[in-house]
Amino acid sequence: QQQVKQSPQSLIVQKGGISIINCAYENTAFDYFPWYQQFPGKGPALLIAIRPDVSEKKEGRFTISFNKSAKQFSLHIMDSQPGDSATYFCAASQGVTNAGKSTFGDGTTLTVKP
Amino acid sequence: DAGVIQSPRHEVTEMGQEVTLRCKPISGHNSLFWYRQTMMRGLELLIYFNNNVPIDDSGMPEDRFSAKMPNASFSTLKIQPSEPRDSAVYFCASSLRGTEQYFGPGTRLTVT
Asked: At B99, is the pLDDT very low, low, confident or very high (cuts 50, 70, 90)?
């Protein structure tokens, strides 16, 4: 019940295209859904996050779409750039209830070709 | 703020030796997490603390691993004795109010 399943494992997109990464969860107690971006040699860094009371959140070229009934959420990167090439992790947590413990997906390696 | 600080950044040691990894969380954060990242197993949560108290250590692989948080500004992860399969990047992260986690730069451990 604590798993977060992420797909695809890897993704290659042309510059200017749309990158889409999907995640699914089982535990309905999760109430916070962040996405992290990790560049080689660095630690993951928060990219964007959403709570289940909204269906979409947009920050610049990055959008999270959230489907509570399907227990799925996805990251959309519009106008993908070579600088977006990184590994992306979705996560889910119960927030304050669990002291912020997050369950992470397995990660998606995104390559944006120039 | 300087962010989460980890030391050392790189550690190379021989099998059987004791290894101590250190972490200084962001000031004011009340949760601290230790992760291990490998190509094979991805990002694994080893243990986490809330208000300096260990909450869940079920991810600690075996008794060779131990972690402490003696105060709000310092934590250690110790491996004794170390084995080649412990080679990985170890991350420390901290959090406030149970929301986003802020990760440190990691310690790359190589056990030969």
From this structure: confident
A25 touches chain B (CB under 8 A): no
Encoded tokens for A24: 């699914």
DSSP string, B1-49: ----EEE-SEEEE-TT--EEEEEEPPTT--EEEEEEEETTTEEEEEEEE
Q: Could you tell me which chain A residue has the CA closest to the CA of B41?
A: A106
Name the β-bridge partners of A21. A75
Contact B101 A96 (CB under 8 A): no
**Would you state the pLDDT for residue B64?**
95
Number of H-type helices and E-type strands within chain A: 0, 11
At A77 the three-state DSSP class reads: strand
List the single residue in A43, A94, A100 with the smallest CB-CB distance to B91.
Answer: A43
Looking at residue A7, what is its pLDDT?
Answer: 96
Tell me which of A23, A39, A51, A104 to substitute to probe the interface with B (most B C-beta atoms closer than 10 Å).
Answer: A104
In single-letter form, the type of residue at position A25 comes to: Y
